[in-house]
Batch of 2 targets.
Target 1
Amino acid sequence: MAIIDLISSVVSKPAGRILESSVRTLVNDLIRDHDLASAAEVDALRRSLRGLEGRADDLQAKLGTAEAEITELRDALANSNAALATANAGLAALQAETHDHVEPEVPAPAEQPTPAPAPAATPDGCQVPGCTKKHRSKGFCSSHYQRWRRGTLTGFVLTDGTVTVGDKTRKVNKKLAGRAYTVVDGKAVVAD
């Protein structure tokens, strides 16, 4: 309230106190009559602006720090790229040097080992092929049970009795929930 402060500074303290309430009332009436912001609203806005200025200063400082870190990372990347180029040039020279002096020995093709079959599900193990964890519920381990409940475990009838065939969802008997199924000729075949 610049007007009240001005009057208070000009008039003596006792007289200023008497005039202050009259001037304050007059100023508040003018504010109300002309739909202007009240002193409290102006003060609240000032406090908010000070807070925002503080936050902006903090963000500006963080931005400066981030920019400095980015510059350091770019410099480090440029140095790494230069070192890599030097190493590649040295490797190429070494390969050219060894290629001229040594004939490469070509090994005979190795026989490919046959992959081991997936472990069979144990009576108390998870029913998902390849999973060796103990079952928690409905024949699934904890992680597969959660995926099945959320509807993200493929190849098993979902909790609501639906299966996915291609890009379509088909309804089957809800009692089959949790059972494995395969798609044959566009039809879902539920395992026993």
Target 2
Amino acid sequence: MLKEESREQIAGFLENIKKANVAPRCAHIKPDGSPSGSPALKDQNFCHWHSETRAVRRATKQGAEVEMPLLEDRVGIQLGIMRVCDLLTSNTIDPYTARVLFQGLRLAERTLNKENFLPPALDFWKRAEITARKEAREQD
């Protein structure tokens, strides 16, 4: 009896996984050109994260002069830095506002690095490969 219930549960889980794999994906395109890849909410074009983020941005944009990219990866942060530089050189924002925006961008960059949202740097992989080769030679 217990095995039969377990099989039914597993079958249900597998059915849900199949549904999730064919579910529509989030329409958000990251600054680097790659798609979000998360499942979209029911009857919506975006996943939970990007739906919420877009709603917040729309609410804050009504009174704001500065439009910034989404700071979800290094490319977004780099675009943000370029945007602040453009606004500063065109005298759209004052140096104090630029300084505050740069501090926010710095915080976003630190958070990305600290929380490991980004893949390891290329030199990490090179060091790992060199270490693996050394260990293989030592075993021979």
